[in-house]
Model the fold of this input.
Amino acid sequence: MLARAGLGGRLGGSGVRGMRDSFEARAVAGLPEGARLARHDAAVFALRGQRDAAVAAVRDWEALRERAAAIKAHALDHLDLLLERFEEKARGAGAFLHWAQDGEAMNAIVAELLAARGAKRVVKSKSMLTEEAGLNRYLHARGAEVVDTDLGERIVQLGEERPSHIIVPAIHRSRGEVGALFQRTLGTPPGMDNPEQLARAARRDLRARFLAADAGITGANFAIAETGSIVVVTNEGNADLGMSLPELHIACFGIEKVIPALADLGVFLRLLARSATGQPLSAYTSMVTGPRAGGELHLVLVDNGRSELLADPVQRGALACIRCGACLNTCPVFRRAGGHAYGPGAPGPIGAVLAPALGGRNARNGRGPRGGRNARSGSGRAQNFAASLPLASSLCGSCSAVCPVRIDLHGQLLAWRSARRSGGAVERVMLRAAAGLMLRPRLLAFAGRVLRRLWRPLGWRIPGNPAAPWLQSRELPPHPGASFRESWQRETR
Amino acid sequence: MSGRESILARLRRGARRTAAHPGEHPAPQLAAGFAPFAEALRAAGGAHHGPLPQNKLAAKVREIAARRAPQGRVLAEPSAAALLGPGPWETPAPDAAGHGFEDAAITIALGQVGCAENAAVLVTGRDAPHRALLFLCRHLLLLLPLRAIAGDFHSALAALPLNALAHHHCTWICGPSKTADIEQTLVQGAHGPLSLDVIAIAPGGESGAQ
Done:
């Protein structure tokens, strides 16, 4: 039996035995049973529905998107200047600034800050960057206890797996599975699967950890150059507890998060929660400027491949992403494959765009931090995996249509496919053969007749059949029995 | 070269300096006032009260406290306490640590700006110097001057009081703490307050607000 990877299982990182690690291999290994697939599909698409309802109520939605895209384009064109301004303002407000070239450097900075203060108990709120860099594992290896405090993140942490969605990390888990997990790890009563009771159990457990924490680690949704503030958005209030109880607050975020001015924040906040969950605004939007009285605020600005991506005229647009998850919720491939098929980085279309650029630097496939390499090289295995992600798309364009900052996601996926060389000799030979056929009409007609005879055997699910993975979840359609040219001649005779 | 210099050098190489800032987004002229605010607050899971004159605030707070947490510890941040006058609430000492409020049943704080578009209420560090109190309590009660409710979020951000960012935090609060992480079932009170009540203060009754 194949290891389950996608909806509801863990995968060691190698996908299906005998297949090269790729999105395709992980998706095939993780193909869910019917009911689980239907639940996941419905849950994810419900978020899309909530988004649509919220968007319909905003008259200036398209103007907002246009404005957001223009502000991000300006910010990316002036990123160095904005970061310097942010640094000056944040320092002026009493924060300490740190610059990390990559995930490894970020992890080292955080570990050093904790060690210097003897901080062992750490509460952390959701941050895709720290996932990207494998911060938890890094700190655990150095004796710190890092507790993820977002409920969904806590569920996947207790289950020793990865988040499967940017904003709903445990969307692949049913209430029954969460109940069984909490029974095993938190000691809740057997059979308890009521979401409210389960959330209360997690609240009790995590409240004690907040109160005992030596340090709080958060990400940042935005950093405002004009004021030196960071902006942290949550619905649960977990980041706020992590920022306001321990004396030490460390915020790690990518350098692309900086926006020019406070007035720009209104544009992004009106787009963010509506695109994510359909809310007009998340429950808590905290603008933090400098440390609290008696506390320390450390801001870690992380590059990890972003400055190199900025130099790419086509792909730099992906840096405008505000991590709302809307592209995941609308993507027919994500809804069926689940987030784990995308590997350790961000899932969905935005993950498929970012991974080939940022992927492979560190912490890939659960093997611990690597770092210190060229952004586009990383480990060969991780790079190969990342290069497979742009194929995880039907190129329907729905992701681009819902993106609140108008990233041309399907265009970027196509560009990555064009740049991909992993097809190698086989692909080149096949393309040459196809070109040869297309240039010779009689030969093409003959080849078509041969193919029609071979049509049924092509659908056989036999080992070695190159179409086998594709056929795991699809049937070959019936062949019409004649080519278009033959049908046309018959009709016009 | 330091990490900072290396990163900035790479960014300078990639900086095109072509895209101009598009300017501020024109405010969409949404209806301000308490009615649309109250409707948005209900949708966000909160409850609204008032508008009430300042001399009726304390009675309303007592009524809400008796309903939400009859025997619980009630804490009022200094600016809210100044508006309410004496009552069964305590005001934390200026240097009190957040850990001492773990048993807080209700926290009362003054909001400086409201937004009808999304029911957000801005609580600044000046009005909530003990920030943890906003999240440790089981129930949060915010006082909001009626005249401080803007229609849209752009106008609300533009109405930020002077020096609002000088007090460590400005927190927009929009309904109680919530999660839908388990089978997308909405649960109020994930980590922070289980409920949020907002009392609007009638014009002329908000001398403690800026």
